[in-house]
Design a protein that fits this description.
Length: 163
């Protein structure tokens, strides 16, 4: 697999992680406001460690941060482009520790009664794994990747609107 193809997959995965996180935030808002029967109850969407009036603005800031990062990585440059090997190593270590802590949280949550993970915080744990994955993908940036950016190239065989 060429560097350009790997970089396109990495950028697509960054956007996918962002989309998953946005879906989680929108789902939680929908459950709070509309309580549709086909979605889990509100208690399943939060751990209760951070009150929702504090959590929602933090989630919205994370969405903005993730969008800025994914955008810079799609362009191949910008302030969110990670260039230093040391920073990439630190991000990798942080992502691994973060995912590991969430695995420990999952084990503890599953061990405590009641044993229904769906009602006791599986959604937040999955959201945290999504964020850890985003950080791990961010750490996979290389200086050489900027030459193999994720830009969507226009297909010369497709008609252009307005012509």
């Amino acid at each position: 697999m060429t560097a350009a193809i790997r970089e396109r997959w990495r950028c697509a995965a960054l956007w996918l992680c962002l989309a998953i996180f946005v879906a989680r935030v929108v789902g939680q808002i929908e459950v709070l406001l509309l309580a549709p029967h086909w979605l889990p109850p509100f208690s399943a969407w939060e751990s209760g460690w951070v009150p929702y009036p504090v959590l929602l603005p933090v989630q919205l800031l994370l969405i903005g941060w993730m969008a800025a990062i994914a955008s810079d990585h799609s362009r191949g440059s910008g302030p969110m482009w990670v260039t230093h090997a040391r920073t990439r190593r630190q991000l990798t270590a942080f992502a691994a520790a973060y995912a590991g802590l969430m695995l420990l949280r999952l084990v503890v949550t599953a061990a405590l009664p009641p044993h229904s993970l769906a009602d006791r915080g599986l959604i937040p744990i999955l959201a945290h794994w999504d964020l850890a994955g985003f950080i791990a993908l961010l750490a996979r940036t290389t200086r050489e990747a900027s030459s193999a950016v994720c830009k969507i190239q226009a297909d010369p065989d497709l008609p252009v609107l307005g012509t």
